[in-house]
Amino acid sequence: MRVGLISDTHLPSLIRHLDGLGPEPAEFLSTVDLILHAGDISTRTVLDWCEQFAPVLAARGNHDVFDDPRVADHQIVELEGWRIGMTHDLRPRTAPAAELAALHFNGADLDVMIGGDTHVEWLEYRDGVLLVNSGSPNLPHNKETRLGTVGLLEIERGRLHAEIVTLGETDGRPNPGTPQHIEVADGRLVGSSYDRDASAEPPRAALRG
Prior knowledge:
Blueprint: E1 2-6, H1 24-29, E2 34-37, H2 44-51, E3 56-59, E4 71-72, E5 74-79, E6 82-87, H3 97-104, E7 112-115, E8 121-126, E9 129-134, E10 149-156, E11 159-166, E12 180-185, E13 188-192, H4 204-208
Parallel strand pairs: 1-2, 2-3, 3-4, 6-7, 7-9
Antiparallel strand pairs: 1-10, 5-6, 8-9, 10-11, 11-12, 12-13
């Protein structure tokens, strides 16, 4: 299963929908089975646009004042044995995973926590939990409108591949995002874009098999 992660679209702004940046956002979303939006959507039409590609669930951001059944203060889903939680502001960033779960997910036992708000991509494995912020597809690093970053979870029972994807470049406006990845399979970490994962214990779902 492929899950697309986006956040902090704040639309409409200089563009009405993400296709105002070019074909790259739609090309990415057309490859996923589910879309998780981590908030600061601004209008429900953003979710409608996303839903032409796949079902959408969203976390409510501080700019999201509309009601929509697809939106909640936090979301928890289970996919292929992986328990995934999503909220808008997954902070304090340096807190232990158990503290983040207590603050944002009523202490739920989670394998993955997804956040947004900062517009800066972040992928980390901590305390047996994968932490993900996909950045922003159109306002990366809080810069003016341009192509930015999204996230991808490729999920199977006992295997998870998480990736930060840079969507490309906007003419004259470089993409500040950095590609990142983490992969867990058969109860062990098999790939990562940063060194400290090499000694980390894999997320609990991988051990359950």
